[in-house]
Description:
Elements lengths: L6 E2 L4 H6 L3 E2 L3 E6 L5 H14 L4 E5 L3 H9 L5 H6 L3 E5 L12 H19 L3 E5 L10 H17 L3 E7 L4 H11 L4 E6 L11 E7 L8 E8 L3 E5 L39 H18 L4 E7 L1 H5 L5 H9 L7 E5 L2 E6 L6 H10 L6 H7 L3 E7 L7 H10 L7
Parallel strand pairs: 3-7, 3-8, 4-5, 4-6, 6-7
Antiparallel strand pairs: 1-2, 8-9, 9-10, 10-11, 12-14, 12-15, 13-14
Amino acid sequence: MKEKIQVIPSGIPLVDLTWGGFYRGGTYFLFGPKKSGKTILALQFVKQSVKQREKCLYFTSVRPKDLMINAAAIHFDLQECMNQNSVVVVRVTPTKNIDVAKDPDSYLAEYLRDIKKVADQYNPNKIIFDELTSFIAFKDLNLLNDAFSEAMEPVEDSGITSLFVLGEPATPAAQQITNSLLNFSTGYISLQKETDFISKEEPGKMEIYPNVGHIEGKFAADYFIESYEGIKIEYFPLSSNDRIAPDIQRKEYVRLSDLKITEKSYNPINVYSIDDFKLILNNQIAYFKSTGEVFTLVSVKLDEKALQNNLLTLNQLQNSIRLSVDKKDKICALQNKVLVLFTKEEKEISNFIAQIIKNLPSIAPNYLSSITQFISVFTSMVNQDINSADEMFDQLFAANFNEKG
């Protein structure tokens, strides 16, 4: 098996809270309109890297002094880090003369190829390019893809984690360029805002999307900028206090119909729709192809006779399974099956089955003797012949279950 790829803290709150960080050697993009906090977030990435005693190479089109002022706003002494050579700031010349160049695309391609050259010179652990927008205005997307791939593949192979900052696409052509670059991404972050100034009272919206790995999925949260702290988020999974109405504190029984309960849409964090589950599964397959890290897909099938005999519903089975897995394991209900994605090779399926039985609606011996006849299990471990989620699904539907009549 190839060496496992590390997940390292990024300093970006929503990423660290939900994904655990960035993959070492991953390529990430950060999108957002002007004054949305992109540079602050990029500097938080740098600040976290410095805490990890890692060297950062920061490409910027602004004056280093202006970058230092932004860093000071989050209580980060960029000047000291530059003096210690833990952060190398490289000012890149804006492409103002691109329109008069004889071959604009080739001119831009050289800028992208210079990323690798400068990285070879300074040997960093992290690269930040703030911002890349004016350097990717290619007319020929194939040339853009070739130039970016030529620059970044050796960077990724060296274990360098990169964050590219981009403005919000303003035209269909810019959106096409963005979509083309995202094919090379490990994941990306989108910042959105509705007001000129982001505050706790008028927050923006941060969304993160996986492309390769990060099987936890996509997440969103409100964010705001706090002086000397940087970007903060408001991301609160449902707590126990949310589940109990204040009126229930009375010293008498209260009918549920009489309680005033604020409705909240709530789904267990590891239960997914079929489309999201397939996306996660495809990402996990791609991760296996690149790292060799094996995973297992388990299908638990409920026979119709269990429903006919009023022994168990699919929702009850799904809940039993949800209580039997870790939060990092992924669950999806499909027809009369509940699918579970175990991302760790060492998962003991026999222990998992024992937990399901323990969490069924009843543990009475007669009930267990009856219901276990109508629950079947099939496991599929990924291998190099599998290229998509649909292929793994085909295995589940083609499999013969050992059922008793």
